[in-house]
Amino acid sequence: MSDSQEQAKRRVGVEVSKTALIAVCLNESGVITGTQELAVDFREPSSQQLVSFIEGLKASFGSFENVGIAVPGLVAHGSKSVAFSAHIPEHSGIDLASKIEAATGVRAYIENDANAAVYGEYRLGAGHGCKNLFFATLGAGVGGAFIFDGQIWRGSAGFAGEFGYIPINSEGMRLEEVASSANIIRRTRSRFHQDNTSSLVDLDETLMTIHDIVTAAEAGDDFARLMLERTGTYVGTGVASVINLLNIEKIIVGGEVMGTQHIVLDAIIARARDLSFGPSFASTEILASELGRHASAAGAALLAAESA
């Protein structure tokens, strides 16, 4: 097979988050053949780091024609720009795709990270074989995305799926205010000294990360577990709204808050069961992401190849 044929068969995607760049390479069958990850250096512009990272992928994966870029923010379908990004303000309003193309010679496709993730799960993960599903992502932000009849559903302006904006109490508190990584850490710190048996008291609370909380909970720390269970209860309230409105086939939950066990997922299911219309809940499957931290990058890779 010629180099150009090999190049055309590679599907490469990159997820851009506030803290890391995560890349995957898929073969023609959708199998992940390589991954790369780089921690973000906050001293350098994000777009500059992204360009350098993509250049480096050519050495790791081999040459490729297209790259899908999954970003946290609002992206109009077919646009080369990020309309707005609360988590990476530098990207707001810039023509990110054209900047990548000019610097790397690789065609770039830009997609919202949750939309990319739901497509990755639909094609390659927990949503495979399902025509209608919702993906919720719990990380630096709280997002969501839909697949209806096998297609990403984007809404009238392209911004559907803002799961983090669902109000979860009568005062209008939004889900993201309690279920994002930063807000879970904030809630944990506010109760930090109420349980001296927690392993978290040995940490410098100013340096605490969501990974610390998840790891402690999965190791049997009751206080950390309680913090994650309460998060799951909040998320389950939002999930119940999705179930009641749409009677959707599957709801998949991913993101760094989920960890490797089902602490958050079990709490989501329990709360959704309590608040959902019974027959609708019974016909909806709620499960964890299969692609995990590679869901957005994998979905972006597929979308870039299909849009070429």
Secondary structure elements and pairings:
Layout: H1 3-9, E1 11-16, E2 20-26, E3 32-39, H2 46-61, E4 66-71, H3 96-104, E5 107-112, H4 113-124, E6 133-138, E7 142-148, E8 151-153, H5 176-179, H6 181-190, H7 210-218, H8 222-246, E9 250-254, H9 263-275, H10 278-282, E10 285-288, H11 295-307
Parallel strand pairs: 1-4, 4-5, 6-9, 9-10
Antiparallel strand pairs: 1-2, 2-3, 6-7, 7-8
The whole-number mean of residue pLDDT values reads 94
Query: DSSP strand (E) fraction?
Result: 15-25%
Instruction: Give the structural class.
Output: alpha/beta
Number of helices: 11
Inertia-based shape: globular
What's the main sheet like?
5 strands, mixed
| Number of separate strands | 10
Radius of gyration: 19 Å
Question: Helix and strand succession?
Answer: HEEEHEHEHEEEHHHHEHHEH
Strand order of the largest sheet: 3-2-1-4-5
List segments where confidence is low: pLDDT < 50 over at least 5 consecutive residues.
none
First and last CA, distance = 21 Å
The percent range for helix content is 25-40%
